[in-house]
Design brief:
Blueprint (H helix, E strand, L loop, with lengths): L1 H97 L4 H78 L42
Helix pairs in contact: 1-2
């Protein structure tokens, strides 16, 4: 009779110990689940921020391409104007050497050349202004690229922490089933990390463009 009571008492104590162990395991699993949910929320916020930065970078890249095209067109126009100016100066020298009676016509022509010089100076000033705006856009593009790379690094770190949390959760689950003596069910596949190219690829920096030195060519009057 005493043995039966002792056995019953031991069974009761064992059941209490097992229940306490189960409670501890359940609490640990709950904490891990909350941590995983927090990491998932952080991941979603980071991906949303990356998408916003990428959209801004795309817009700035389009503006940068527009400014580059305008810069090339203005430079081509400046080259054409310089060719015209050199031709006018050559004609002016030849006409001064031909005869004196054409000097009045040459003065009128020199006035036209002066107006072209002023136009050339205006084009050169506009070219410098566009070069400054282009460099400002490049600096903004590089700053956004740097911020994008920082967010990508944070996202990759979050993904690693999430994978480790899944691993810890699975290990805790195995220990719990092992302690309960219950067969471990088939393991579900953990979510794979997203390809880093979907918004996680580092953006290259762009080198600023130097503004060309402007100036009018000297002319000699005969």
């Amino acid at each position: 009779m005493k043995n039966m009571r002792l056995l019953t008492l031991l069974n009761l104590v064992g059941a209490l110990v097992l229940a306490g162990f189960c409670a501890v395991q359940w609490h640990g699993e709950l904490l891990l689940r909350r941590q995983v949910e927090g990491l998932l929320q952080t991941k979603a916020a980071n991906e949303k921020e990356i998408a916003g930065h990428k959209q801004t970078i795309d817009g700035l890249s389009a503006d940068l391409a527009h400014f580059k095209q305008y810069f090339a067109d203005t430079k081509e126009q400046l080259s054409a104007t310089q060719k015209v100016l050199r031709k006018v100066e050559t004609d002016n020298a030849r006409l001064n050497a031909d005869c004196v009676q054409l000097r009045e016509n040459i003065k009128v022509w020199e006035q036209a050349v002066k107006e072209r010089d002023e136009h050339l100076a205006e084009l050169n000033s506009r070219l410098k202004d566009f070069a400054e705006r282009l460099n400002d856009s490049i600096r903004r593009h590089n700053e956004l690229a740097r911020r994008h790379n920082e967010v990508v690094g944070l996202l990759n770190t979050t993904r690693q922490q999430l994978a480790q949390a899944y691993k810890d959760l699975d290990e805790a689950r195995r220990k719990l089933y092992k302690a309960l003596g219950v067969p471990i069910p088939e393991k579900k596949a953990a979510p794979k990390e997203a390809n880093s190219s979907a918004g996680g690829e580092p953006k290259p920096a762009v080198t600023p463009t130097a503004a060309p030195a402007g100036g009018k060519e000297k002319r000699e009057n005969g």
